[in-house]
Amino acid sequence: MKELKSIFSKWGLVLLLGILAILMGIFMLANPGMTFHTLSTIFIVNFLTFGILTAAKAVLFREKNGSKWILQLIGGLAVIFLAVYIAAQPLAPETLLLTFFAVGYIMSGVSMIFYSVFTVRRLFPRWWLLLIFGVITVLAGCGLLSDAITGVIAIVTLAGVGMLSQGLNLIHRAIFMSKVNTAMKEVL
Question: Is the pTM higher than 0.70?
Answer without folding.
Answer: no
